Amino acid sequence: TAIQIGWTRAQLTQLVGSSGSVVSEAGTGSTNIVTVYYTGIGTGVSNAIAAIIFIGGAVVAKSEAGFDAAIAGKINIQQYNTIQIGWNQSKVLQLLGGNGNIVSQAGKPGTSSYVVTAQYTGSQSSFAIVSFVFIGGILNRKSQIGLDTGIYTITKQQYTAIEIGWTRAQLTQLVGSSGSVVSEAGTGSTNFITVEYTGTGAGVAKAIAVIVFIGGAVVAKSEAGFK
């Protein structure tokens, strides 16, 4: 957590006590890109990994996985649906009452290119994970896994009938539900939404259909498990 964007390799080594494992390197001089890995220490974090990326000898990004057995910060589906792309980070934090777990940072803090990814767990289940990506302090993308526990079903015949260019309303009218929005990014004509449905009928209980919308229109569809 103490590592700051802009730090040198020497500063990192002084803090941590080792230079880490260099897993990749490219370029020279000001374009030299080095990725360094560390593993977590302490109770419950033996499998944690921290990745630090240097360009031209300075930290430009950092990310981690596994340090928090329970991610700080809870969220429910109502809060998730309330949060809109374009909100500033402070507004999101005010609604949720905390920062969550900052799993990655890139760029210089305070600039329009500074990227932060924050994660929260579901208030009803620790297996539900929500991620928010902020660029320049503005929410650019949100995604959820397991938070929306609604039942959204689709048949193979319905899936086959879906056409590229359809609106969300046309899809909802055909299927009978709006589906589970697992990720969303952008606004207006660049609004990007991914919707999931589960299969219904004999032998397709585990089938999944994924529909992708850009600017409100279907641009792609895929399925797995339909026979």
From TrEMBL:
Indicate whether Signal appears among the record's keywords: yes
Keywords on record:
Signal
Q: What is this protein called?
A: Uncharacterized protein
Q: Which organism is it from?
A: Rotaria socialis
Taxonomy, top ranks, is:
Eukaryota, Metazoa, Spiralia, Gnathifera, Rotifera
